[in-house]
Amino acid sequence: MELRQLEYFVQVARLQHVTKAAEELHVAQSAVSRQIHRLEEELGIRLFMQRGRNVQLTPVGQLFLRRAEAILGDLDRAVMEIHEFLDPEVGEIRLGFPHSLGIHLVPQVVAAFRKIHPNVKFRFRQGMYPSLIRDVVDAEVDLAFISPFPENNEQVTGEVVLTESLFAILPTSHPLANKESINLSELKDETFVLFGNGYSLRPIVWDACKEAGFTPKIGFEGEESGTIRGLVAAGMGVSLLPEMAMYETSSMMPAVVKISEPQVMRTIGLIHRSSEKLPLVVQIFHSFLIDFFNNEYRSL
After folding, report:
1. pLDDT digits (tens, 9 = 90+) for 21-41
2. Is the pTM higher than 0.90?
3. Contact yes or no for 10/68 (Cβ under 8 A)
4. Is the distance from CB of 242 to CB of 100 less than 8 angstroms?
5. Tens digit of pLDDT for each residue in 101-150?
6. Alpha-carbon distances of 285 from 88, 93, 94, 116, 150, rounded to whole Å
7. Is the sign of the CA dihedral 228, 233, 239, 241 positive or negative?
8. In this structure, are residues 135 and 272 in contact, taking their beta carbons and an 8 Å threshold?
9. φ, ψ of residue 40 in degrees (nearest 5)
10. C-beta of residue 261 within 8 angstroms of C-beta of residue 184
11. Contact between residue 239 and residue 219 where contact means Cβ atoms under 8 Å apart
């Protein structure tokens, strides 16, 4: 079995098309087909089934794909670790984060890190809570910011780096818009604009409303904090957002009011795989982040 065969197999499996895989690999289609055939002969199994012009993995092919991807991933990391051992200043860091942290927090910490390590490269991946956990577990990213911090997941480990309050956001014409603070129960008769299912802020807001004695009436749902703010500013309802989501401004901005009771908070964690030592350049970035949140960020 050759490494080239695994590379060709994985590419065909991902694209479900031999010709497209050959184009991506910059080789002849016949070379890809030949290597896949030899791999199947050596394994004594069918890896693909023909589906029109496409191909589809057989059940055993799906099993083999997971192993092949792991092997190629380990090889890539081994090569990267060698390069980083020679010079950790030219490595690459794969960082995952939710959209709400991409407005201010992630650009801020990356810019601060690159002032010290200007040649380190970053590859970013945004996602919702479940996909970020999966990306870390599947080694698609080295580190991920995530909210809330996963307390009981044995596959990932990490620490809470930041705890942040949520504020009520209201249309500027709302009777409570000019108050310094409100009790969340004062919004019990309002229509709420919330994030959709799968977004971590949704259950935080939902649980806070339940604690305040009511179930929120959902009028609209959005996928980005800017959408939520805009809908509220346009008078479509009220919502709760973290302070960090207020850094981005636009012509449509709602009123922002503190919540005195109950206290509504979210935790932001930094996680990585439990079973794997971080590459050297990622270790350097991880240490930088812990120091950053313990010192610099508190003073900003």
Report:
1. 888 888 998 988 898 888 888
2. no
3. yes
4. yes
5. 888 889 999 999 999 999 899 999 998 888 999 999 988 999 999 988 88
6. 11, 8, 11, 10, 21
7. positive
8. no
9. -65, -40
10. yes
11. no
